[in-house]
Amino acid sequence: MTKFPELTEAEFERAIPARLRKRLMRGDFRSGEDVAALRRFTGLTQTQFAQAMGISVHTLRNWEQGRRTPEGPAIGLLRIAARHPKILRENLVSAA
User: Are 53 and 45 a contacting pair, CB within 8 Å?
Assistant: First the structure.
């Protein structure tokens, strides 16, 4: 029997349901909370996530607070972030 290690408290707080992640990987962002959940899932702050995505923090906050919705290429980048969060973190390191 395979044993899975316990999640740390920080990992548990970042976790998102598989159903939500699959929906986000399809680019189906229904609310600002979806964007916020994805950002938390990546383990990045708003500033770090915005920098890794190549957008302003103001834009990210507008998305997360539901004042604006991501469209066009931004949806594509968010889909990649949902599917491969490690790439987003690596992009942050290479941009620094």
Answer: no
pLDDT tens digits for 49-59?
999 999 999 99
Domains and CATH numbers, the chain: 18-95 (1.10.260.40)
- Return the number of other C-beta atoms located less than 10 Å from residue 37's C-beta: 20
Predicted model pTM: 0.84
Q: Report the interhelical angle of 46-53 vs 32-42 (nearest 10°).
A: 90
Annotate 8-48 with DSSP letters as a single string: PHHHHHH---HHHHHHHHTT---SHHHHHHHHHHHT--HHH
